[in-house]
Amino acid sequence: MTKDVPIRSHSFSIIGIITSLNDKFERFVDKKAAILFPAPAIMILVGLFAVPIVYTLYLSFHFWNLSTTTAPIPIGFDNYLQVFQTERFWAAFRHTIYFSSLSIMIQIPLGLGIAMLLNRDFIGRGLVRTLFLFPMMATPVSTMIGWRLMLDPNSGLIGLLASWGLPRVALLSDPFWAMPTFVLADTWRWTPFVSLILLSGLSSLPEEPFEAAVIDGASAWQLFTYITLPLLRPTIFVAVLFRVIDSLKVFDTIFVLSGVGGGTRTYTETLNIYAYSESFEYFHTGYASALLVIFFFIVFGFSLGLAKVRRANDA
User: Fold this and answer.
1) The CATH number of the domain where 231 resides is what?
2) Which domain covers residue 227, as residue numbers?
3) pLDDT 10s digits, 190-207
């Protein structure tokens, strides 16, 4: 009986320590919940993005051809110098800017016009809005395959029109019409996205300025020019920023419609297609890594420039 007392007191002390540690842990979790709960997801995202970026930067300073068994050889900035001295890079850069600029110039005004139409009250507006989003929600590769089949000069829509006497034009392989055709397919796919952004902006505009302008006798054009556009300018900048980043990074549209480098035609090759070709066709991994690093800074520079323009306009 005399031995039960120290054993019982010892067990009570252990329970007290555990309870105290549990209380401290709970208080710690309560204070750091905003950091602890998203921490696993953040670590996964950092691993998925940071590790490839750092490894690509590392390879950009090495010569490495995957067709050989040799390890990467450090060569400093030689890959970057070679990129800037290659005419194919500058041609791909011009094609990328051309594709992005033409896409933005078409999709933003078209998206704004469609958003203004969808912002009106009419029968079946909800159904029309839903159907209008289908191109954006469909699988990109499957839709571009559909476009490729449709534009086939022999068996597609072009072939059908040619049977009616119209000229048979191979739009996807024509040096002049190939890139505008890619822009057309990209516009069909992404204009609903632009319209969705602008429609949200239109829905949030205050009604008082419009009511006051109507009372003063303003026309529909004056309402659009002097009230709608200035109030909608921040939303338009958001749409432009998203589309600039996406259009500069375009890959699937051109790859599916025309293949790597436009097949044997480099007049449709953008920077993404060029990097893919160098990496997975010619296995110039170090050179392709330097190309991707340069491409990253190009996209980052355009994004930063647009953000500064937006801040200047807001001020």
Assistant:
1) 1.10.3720.10
2) 82-314
3) 999 999 999 999 988 888
